[in-house]
């Protein structure tokens, strides 16, 4: 979903993050701290794909599971950062009225990276569209994957079906083609259909959850396993990282694999020590990123670090069995929240009686030719 980062780099503003409250001290964007990230003033060339996927091949990474309660905690914690509260944003859509999509209070600003492209890159007439609880994006394959899967589960009888050809067309364009951001054939009607489906059809909610699991949660668990991270809270941290930074080789400057590399091997570190190092690297990378979009979101990493940076906190939070307090965001995640319905964005719809989600389905991790857009 965050596949437009590279283009957004065109809007470089220099190391501008000195003034951000969560980019101070060891995270200040000084040359000393930032050189290792190799950000340059010129945008690097866009990476096109030759193998029909934007994802790394992670088939060789070890696997591990996650229990239901931990998965729920991880999704809720990330939802707080993305949507500001513990109501899952299944029906979230940008408001297109002013043609900028910024009339709603923004979720985490990184979700709006694509807007930077519009400003800095005249070729894009409009930004791609973001919708759903983790910002499924029209110009990458993830919104297309959601709609395709929904079609399958409804026999093509659903409100979003008519947008399938356009999503397919966009997904088949070369990755660096700015026309991927085109919304002329989607726009407000697509958003309306998304919102309505999320508010009235439990199958669509379950589809979003299942695609989110296969595209982001399952890969996060593999990346975590590959560096020996097995604690419940570590799994949640990797999930949040992959949701925000992605795991795509077409974004070489910022993705979970780069953060793992820059963190360095775990060596003899305890898992707690390694995770703190990992979060510090992630935060530095954001603070050093030469734009005005990444540095402000260092606050979420501060909230995560704050859950484990003492022996007592580690003992309390490592299993995610207790409620966690996200201090900067001012929200406590309990794990008992209802995740079935978007009561925040569905106010104008009547919740159907007996609303309940169908059983989830496990989908393959993307990144093989099997998931190429057809
Ligand atoms: C696709 O190619 C890129 C670039 O060579 C590589 O990094 C990536 O792992 C490949 N992905 C798959 C699924 O083979």
Radius of gyration over C-alpha positions, nearest whole angstrom: 20 Å
N-to-C span: 19 Å
Number of helices: 13
SSE string, helix = H, strand = E?
Answer: HHHHEEHHHHHHHHHEE
The distinct ligands, each listed once, are: 2-acetamido-2-deoxy-beta-D-glucopyranose
| Domain unit count | 1
Strand content: under 5%
* Fraction in helix: 25-40%
| Structure summary, number of beta strands | 4
Unreliable segments (pLDDT under 50, ≥5 consecutive)? 1-17, 96-125
Biggest sheet: strand arrangement: 1-2
Shape: globular
Class by alpha and beta content: mainly alpha
**pLDDT averaged residue by residue:** 85
Describe the sheet with the most strands.
Answer: 2 strands, antiparallel
Give the topology, please.
Blueprint (H helix, E strand, L loop, with lengths): L4 H4 L22 H4 L33 H16 L29 H8 L9 E2 L4 E2 L3 H14 L9 H9 L14 H14 L1 H25 L5 H14 L10 H8 L7 H18 L9 H8 L5 H7 L6 E3 L4 E3 L41
Antiparallel strand pairs: 1-2, 3-4
Helix pairs in contact: 3-9, 5-6, 5-8, 7-8, 8-9, 10-11, 11-12
The chain binds 2-acetamido-2-deoxy-beta-D-glucopyranose.
Notes on the structure:
There is one protein chain. The protein is built from 13 helices and four strands. By secondary structure, the protein is mainly alpha-helical. The chain has one domain. The strands form two sheets. A two-stranded antiparallel sheet has the order 1-2. A hairpin with a 4-residue loop joins strand 3 (324-326) and strand 4. Helix 10 (256-263) crosses helix 11. The chain binds 2-acetamido-2-deoxy-beta-D-glucopyranose. Residues 51, 53, 55-57, 249, 367-368 line the site of 2-acetamido-2-deoxy-beta-D-glucopyranose (NAG). Keywords: Signal. Residues 1-18 form the signal peptide. Pfam families: Glyco_hydro_46.
């Amino acid at each position: 979903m965050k596949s437009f980062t590279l283009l957004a780099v065109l809007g470089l503003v220099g190391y501008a993050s000195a003034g951000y409250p969560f980019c101070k001290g060891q995270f200040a964007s000084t040359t000393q701290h930032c050189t290792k990230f190799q950000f340059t003033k010129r945008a690097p060339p866009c990476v096109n794909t030759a193998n029909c996927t934007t994802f790394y091949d992670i088939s060789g990474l070890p696997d591990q599971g996650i229990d239901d309660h931990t998965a729920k905690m991880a999704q809720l914690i990330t939802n707080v950062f993305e949507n500001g509260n513990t109501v899952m944003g299944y029906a979230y859509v940008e408001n297109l009225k002013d043609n900028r999509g910024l009339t709603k209070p923004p979720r985490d600003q990184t979700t709006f990276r694509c807007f930077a492209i519009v400003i800095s890159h005249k070729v894009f007439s409009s930004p791609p569209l973001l919708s759903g609880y983790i910002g499924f994006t029209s110009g990458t394959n993830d919104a297309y994957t959601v709609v395709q899967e929904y079609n399958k589960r409804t026999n093509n009888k659903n409100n979003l079906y008519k947008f399938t050809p356009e999503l397919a067309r966009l997904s088949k364009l070369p990755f660096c083609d700015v026309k991927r951001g085109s919304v002329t054939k989607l726009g407000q009607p697509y958003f309306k259909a998304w919102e309505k489906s999320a508010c009235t059809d439990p199958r669509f909610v379950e589809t979003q959850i299942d695609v989110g699991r296969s595209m982001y949660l399952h890969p996060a668990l593999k990346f975590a396993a590959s560096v020996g991270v097995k604690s419940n809270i570590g799994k949640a941290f990797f999930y949040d990282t992959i949701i925000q930074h992605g795991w795509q080789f077409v974004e070489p400057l910022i993705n979970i694999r780069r953060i793992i590399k820059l963190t360095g091997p775990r060596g003899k570190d305890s898992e707690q020590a390694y995770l703190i190092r990992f979060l510090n690297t992630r935060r530095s990378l954001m603070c050093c990123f030469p734009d005005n979009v990444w540095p402000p979101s260092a606050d979420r990493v501060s909230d995560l670090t704050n859950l484990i940076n003492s022996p007592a906190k580690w003992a309390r939070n490592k299993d995610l069995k207790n409620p966690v307090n996200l201090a900067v965001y001012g929200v406590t995640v309990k794990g008992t929240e209802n995740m079935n319905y978007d009561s925040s964005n569905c106010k104008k719809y009547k919740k159907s009686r007996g609303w309940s989600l169908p059983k989830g389905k496990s989908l393959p991790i993307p990144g093989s030719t099997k998931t190429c857009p057809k």
